[in-house]
Design a protein that fits this description.
The protein has five helices and two strands. The chain is an alpha+beta fold. It comes from Parvibacter caecicola.
């Protein structure tokens, strides 16, 4: 599993939104955007697809998806994680694998 795998990026986005919710802070769009510290250096089109998946599954709110030519364009209003998103973070086996990957990466590279 790599840092740019869909499940890893999804985990990081959902975890960031959940952390912001718990702290009572509004998420910073610049942190969520491609190249930001949450999503990492991924192409805009890949980020749009990931965010569209999260919105379509009801895991996030405040995310508008505009489809044109079978490609999504995502607009963030006031993104937040839903209860379904929190449960997905905790119960989904791929999310557990993504968390394990991130923990291992962080222990190998503590400055990251």
């Amino acid at each position: 599993m790599g840092a740019d795998d869909m499940h890893v990026v999804m985990y990081k986005v959902l975890a960031y939104l959940y952390d912001c919710m718990k702290r009572g802070e509004e998420p910073r769009k610049s942190r969520l955007a491609p190249g930001g510290d949450v999503a990492g250096p991924i192409p805009q089109s890949y980020w749009d697809e990931i965010m569209a998946q999260l919105a379509d599954r009801g895991l996030v709110r405040g995310v508008s998806v505009i489809w044109a030519d079978n490609s999504p364009t995502v607009v963030l209003a006031r993104p937040t994680v839903t209860l379904e998103g929190v449960e997905f973070l905790q119960d989904n086996s791929m999310m557990r694998r993504a968390l394990k990957f991130l923990r291992e990466t962080k222990s190998a590279l503590p400055f990251v």
